[in-house]
Amino acid sequence: MRRCAHLRDLGIVRYAPALEWQCRLHAQRVAGEIPDTLLLLEHPPVITLGKAFHPEHLRYATEFYAQQGIELYPTDRGGDVTCHNLGQLVGYPIFDVAQHGRDLHKFLRDLEEALIRALAEFGIAAHREAGYTGVWVNNAKIAAIGIKVTKWVSMHGFALNVNNDLRLFATIVPCGIADRPVTSMQQVLGYTVPMEQVKRSVAKAFEEVFQLQFVPVAAPLASDCVDRYNCL
Fold first, then answer.
1. pTM for this structure?
2. Is the four-CA dihedral 138, 126, 113, 19 of positive or negative sign?
3. CATH of the domain at 25
4. What whole-number percentage of the chain has pLDDT above 90?
5. Is 49 within a domain?
6. Pair 9, 42: CB distance under 8 Å
7. Is 70 exceeded by the pLDDT of residue 73?
8. Do strands 135-137 and 140-150 pair parallel, antiparallel, or not at all (unpaired)?
């Protein structure tokens, strides 16, 4: 039997209010007030700095990013530095990991598996790379993954490059990996990929891998996403 879960499509949301919304849902999931919830969204240009961030992995001074209108945002997810921009599908699973094996390594592999299955629907043969977290096509990374788990409930998640401008990645050392390029679905396929179709494929793959049945839930009003950092 598949468990009921919520699917929320937030559209385009800045990083800070989306993080605040994650925190609220995380607290509700810990309290058992909501089921597993997957947030799907896009972020305007932002570079996030994970717990393993190394300052030298920013290729330019912080003033450069401010001049370009690119936000730098320290966060508490795992991993190093990555970036988000429009055309990239970001997914934040607020899941009770205890219900999915109580194994963080398995949970990460399951996230990868869901994205690999979703990409296969577009004829893209994606795979894992030994020693790395994320999803790859040939030698290039197409999806980054970084999570945080508190009280066995996850937050943060994945960033799948769909149609986004990859030049932003040239301003950082993505995930601290200097010798591997990044790619996107658009770059692999040679055409612009409908984002709504990608969302459907990702949701379907998450249902299969995590044995869930998604129920769409309305996105929060803008006033509900307070632009502040108040995480657990």
1. 0.92
2. positive
3. 3.30.930.10
4. 84
5. yes
6. no
7. yes
8. antiparallel
Predicted confidence at residue 169, as pLDDT, reads 93
- Say which amino acid occupies 219: A
In this structure, the number of other CB atoms found within 10 A of the CB of residue 97 comes to 20
| E strand or H helix at 203 | helix 195-210
From 49-58, 87-96, 172-181, the region with the lowest mean pLDDT: 172-181
DSSP structure class, residue 79 = S
Q: Judge whether 231 counts as a catalytic residue.
A: no
- Of 125, 42, 142, nearest to 91 (Cα)? 42
151 backbone φψ class: left, alpha, beta (φ>0; ψ -120 to 50): left
Provide the domain count of the chain: 1
- Which pLDDT value is given to residue 220? 67
| Rounded CA separation 149/172 (Å) | 26
Mean pLDDT of the chain: 92
Measured in residues, the chain has a length of: 232
230 part of a folded domain: no
List phi, psi (to 5°) of 132: -125, 155
The one catalytic residue in 4, 23, 83, 175 is 175
Average pLDDT rounded to a whole number, residues 142-165: 97
DSSP result, 162-202 = SS--GGGGGGB-GGG-TT--B--HHHHHSSPPPHHHHHHHH
In a domain, 12, yes or no: yes
Domain around 154: 3-224
Give a yes or no: residue 229 inside a domain: no
